[in-house]
Amino acid sequence: MLDNLKKYRILLASASPRRRELLAGLGLPFTVIRPEGVDESWPEGLQGAEIPEYIARSKAEACRATLQADELLITADTIVWLDGRVLGKPADEREAVEMLQALSGRTHQVYTGVCLTTTACQRCFSAVSHVRFASLTDDEIRYYVGHYHPFDKAGAYGVQEWIGMVGVEYIEGSYFNVMGLPVQRLYSELKLII
Fold first, then answer.
1. What residues contact 20, with CB distance under 8 A and at least 6 apart?
2. Least confident of 36-50, 83-97, 115-129
3. Is 77 among the residues known to form the active site?
4. CA–CA separation, 194 vs 182, rounded Å?
5. What does the pLDDT look like over 68-86, one tens digit per residue?
6. How many helices and strands in the chain, by DSSP H and E?
7. Sign of CA dihedral 83, 85, 178, 124
8. Which of these is catalytic: 77, 92, 138, 152?
9. Considering only CA atoms, which of 9, 66, 16, 13 is closest in space to residue 35?
10. What does DSSP assign to residue 156?
């Protein structure tokens, strides 16, 4: 599978353990790198999928100067989108609780932008999943935040954790996208790399 990639050394520019786990599931050898000094802000006026695609492209640009001809760089960014605004990574427990209270009993979108970059070309795409949360009690929310410390997760939750098991009523779209990498779409896009 993916014989077209044999000529490349695959680099994943991500600090996310979930992205590493998901990419490893494709059975591809890869090396994790950490892009330095990436500005993860975005221009005013971007909406939904435009935001993580912009940030994924920014991460790729931060690494592009050192990219070798035999390397394929994968960068990604995920946001939680509710009522036309981004719920990023919470700064503290209070903010995590507030985010989960806002998501409780509602449907939100999870967008992931991905860029595949070589010295010759760049392909960027995004995926969206619609996630419906059941109504959560304050005790349930505080239990999750206190036990799982979701401060490194967009929207203050990991769908693969306790909160996903007890709180997510349904997902329309890729479950893996909600975890941080739309693996099926990534696989399809990787087949197009030459």
1. 12, 14, 32
2. 36-50
3. yes
4. 21
5. 999 999 999 999 999 999 9
6. 7, 7
7. positive
8. 77
9. 13
10. G
The number of distinct structural domains making up the chain is 1
CB-CB contact of 77 with 18 (8 Å): no
For 97-149, what is each residue's pLDDT tens digit?
A: 999 999 999 999 999 999 999 999 999 999 999 999 999 999 999 999 999 99
pLDDT for 37 beyond 80: no
Query: Which parts of the chain fold into alpha helices (H)?
Result: 17-24, 50-64, 93-103, 138-148, 162-167, 175-179, 183-190
d(CA 172, CA 182): 13
What's the rounded Cα separation, in Å, for the pair 156 and 159? 10
For 38-73, b/e burial (b = at least 16 CB within 10 A) is beeebeeeeeebebbbbbbbbbbebbeeeeeeebbb
The enclosing domain of 160 has a CATH number of 3.90.950.10
Range of the domain at 61: 3-190
* Predicted confidence (pLDDT) per residue in 178-191, tens digit: 999 999 999 999 99
The one-letter amino acid code at 73 reads L
